[in-house]
Amino acid sequence: MNTLNTKRINPIQPRYHKTDSPEAFYYGTATLRGEQITRYTDCLWRIAFECGREYERKEIEQLNKRHKLINQLMSYQTKKHTELLRGKTSE
User: What is the pTM of this model?
Assistant: First the structure.
C-alpha cells in the first residue's frame, strides 16, 4: 500500500515554516504557517491583480482620448478638404 502523501501543493502558494529556508524571510512569511500563508499570498495576488486592472483602465482611457482627438482632427481635415474642393470647382 502506498503511504506517500499525494496531496499536491500549488507552487504559487508556498507553505514555509520558520526554520524552512531563507526564502521564508524573503517572502516575509517566516513566522506564518499553513493557511495564514495561503491567505497572505492570495491577498498579495489580489492586490497585484487590482493594480494591473487599474493600470489597464487608465491606459484604455488614454487610448480613447487619443482616438477621439484623432477622429476630431480627421473630420476637421475632411471638412476643410471638401470646402477646398467645392471652392475650386465653383470657379
Answer: 0.39
Q: In the chain, how many domains are there?
A: 1
Residue 37 structural domain: 22-90
| pLDDT confidence of residue 18 | 46
17: which 3 cell numbers?
515554516
Q: From residue 46, how far is each of 2, 31, 50 by CA, in Å?
A: 38, 21, 6
pLDDT of residue 34: 57
How far does CA 83 lie from the centroid of its chain? 46
Asked whether the beta carbons of 15 and 40 are under 8 A apart, the reply is: no
Task: Specify the DSSP element, H or E, that contains 83.
Answer: helix 35-90
- Give CA–CA dist 41/9, Å, rounded: 13
The answer to whether position 42 is within a domain reads yes
Cβ-contact 37, 45 below 8 angstroms: no
Residue 72 covered by a domain: yes
User: Would you call 32 helix, strand, or coil by DSSP?
Assistant: coil
